[in-house]
Predict the 3D structure of the following.
Amino acid sequence: NMGPTKGMLATAGCVVRDEGVRGLWAGVTASCVRTAAGAGLYFLLLERVSRELNQRFPKAEGDKAVAAANGARTFAVGAASRALAATLLCPITVVKTRMEYASMSGVTYSGVGNALWQVANKEGARGLFSGLGSTLARDAPFSGLNLLMYTKARGAMADLAAAQGREVTALDTFVAGAVAGGIATFATHPPDVLRTRAQLGGAASASLAKLVAEEGVRVLWVGSTPRIARRTLQQAVTWSLFEYIATALGGSSVLS
């Protein structure tokens, strides 16, 4: 029992002790599939929708009300793009979660395909899309906030570069992505706790009010440290690659 009070290193120690080093990579195949496909779908939608919106309805410059409207549009584009991608990839997310917690559930899987078949065979579409509501409650706001924070952070880095008389560098983009990813991950971690409980078969207890009443407010940020560390680096690298590839292929930055 790893409990909600153990830190990241203590939890890793428990996993290695109980499951061996391989336990630290449980579900890595499903995670890679979900991450790669999810990022591809998300950025495809994001780039297309952003370009169309900017061409049809150019962003205006003006007072605080105009700035707030532009910010709301940026948030909505990021959230909508992620919501569609997350819905399409929900079965892979379920499999990833089940494989990561296989030692606790007692169910073993030989691979991603086998896990998908087992869940579909035993639980049907309901099992494959379990936790979709909490996944959307986490992923849509995360991506909306992440995109909004990234545009603000990268804009600030661009202003800093201009003040220093230089061009925006890959490091500037990396820092902006890391800041955006860290803030957005922390703010949207509670829905991730609900998603995990639901996808492990605990949908009946997957309620913010019930979790807080039974386990206290701290339960809403259980596991937040490794997730924030992972997402911060992931978003820094992801945004850096996106900006580089989009420009190299003749696309546009999300700030364009």
